[in-house]
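Journal club prep — side note

Before the paper discussion, L.F. wants everyone to see what a predicted structure for a comparable chain looks like in token form. Sequence:
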Amino acid sequence: LYYKLLRKRVVFTAHNVNAGARDGNDSFINRLSLRVQYKLCDEIFVHTAKMKYELVGQFDIPGERISLIPYGINNVVPDTALAPNEARERLGIGSDDKVLLFFGSIAPYKGLEYLLTAFDEIAKQDKGYRLIIAGKPKWDGGYWSLLEPTIASSAARDRIIRKIEFVSDEQTEVFFKAADVLVLPYTHIFQSGILFIAYNFGLPVIASDVGSMREEIIDGRTGFVCKPRDRSDLARTIVRYFQSDLYRDLEFQRVEIKRYANETHSWSEVARITASIYSKLSKR
């Protein structure tokens, strides 16, 4: 409002259109404040078409004031000469194990409970599966405390590696290089920065069909998409991945995933689109 009073143009990047809806604490006041915020903007940057549709449909923002900007590939996290087999040795994982990774903050909308039950299901059929959970519980940790009994009662609990704390950038590559696939069983999301960390390391992704996941994941080339809130479909999709050419030729596919990500989500492309939009704004 201050800048509008000074007759300045306001450009806003919305990483989440309504984080309250995602986190389960939405309210009339929250939606009203967001509406006012968005109405005051001359231009709003979003990362997906679904985010644009939500701004138009729920907050009555004209579509011509919303621009799609690709989510830039995360190339800030260190990527050293550490080899996958060395990463596995650090975590005590065998070279032939089938390793799933859940990475990032632990919160209800991440759907970790569906992965835990799916893992329990597939681990009964194959002793080679391993699951890594690496991340810090969000808020007061109440959600994680509800999941701990599920892990404790699982017959596969000894095959679950837990690093329940903040993971620094320097530690991140160990998990992404030790894993065979990243799993994002989210129940609500607009876009995931974790997906682009995976792509930066050339790691395939299995994700539930929420937000823009289906648009970002190329079936059989960069990963697979499953039904949200469906542990059985998630389990089937995990098994499908480990039976696929994507897994069987993972060393080559990692290179291809990196190439794809850098072609479609490079920071030079993000900068080009952003500069073009600012140029148009300056002429309004």
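L.F.'s comment for the group: The mean pLDDT is 92. Keep this in mind when we get to the figures.
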